[in-house]
From TrEMBL:
InterPro entries, A to Z: YjbR (IPR007351), YjbR-like_sf (IPR038056), YjbR/MT2646/Rv2570-like (IPR058532)
Pfam families attached to this UniProt entry: YjbR
Alphabetized GO MF terms: DNA binding
Lineage, opening ranks: Bacteria, Bacillati, Actinomycetota, Actinomycetes, Kitasatosporales
Protein name in UniProt: MmcQ/YjbR family DNA-binding protein
Keywords carried by this UniProt record: DNA-binding
Length: 119
């Protein structure tokens, strides 16, 4: 997956926006103000921090050692750092991004979720 493909995919979700609260180099993708993906798109290898169910996070790290690791500078229980331009299939990376978005949306207040459904 290229940086452009990762950015486009993250922004394809309903109400997703790209922000730069930490520095101009760090893309933070949010839905309704909540982070679901974070990446330095110019870095090599290309990695992205993604929210993950804790049990799935452990399983994914075991299945893909070195390519999916505990989230860098994040809560290691709930976040993974995924190497997006390596040996992982692009489809798996897309699924992990989508899962992260869905987890964040599920944690939004009901009124916010309803607004997302209507837009």
């Amino acid at each position: 997956m290229t940086p452009q493909e990762l950015r486009a995919f993250c922004l394809s979700f309903n109400a997703a926006v790209e922000d730069f609260p930490f520095s101009p180099e760090i893309s933070v993708f949010k839905v309704r103000g909540k982070l679901f993906a974070l990446s330095h798109l110019d870095a090599r290898p290309l990695t992205v921090n993604l929210k993950c169910d804790p049990e799935d996070a452990i399983r994914l790290r075991a299945e893909h050692p070195g390519l999916i690791v505990p989230g860098w500078h994040m809560n290691k229980r709930h976040w993974n750092t995924v190497t997006a331009d390596g040996d992982l299939p692009d489809q798996l990376v897309r699924e992990l991004v989508e899962d992260s978005y869905d987890l964040v949306v599920a944690g939004l207040p009901r009124a916010e979720r309803l607004r997302l459904d209507r837009s």
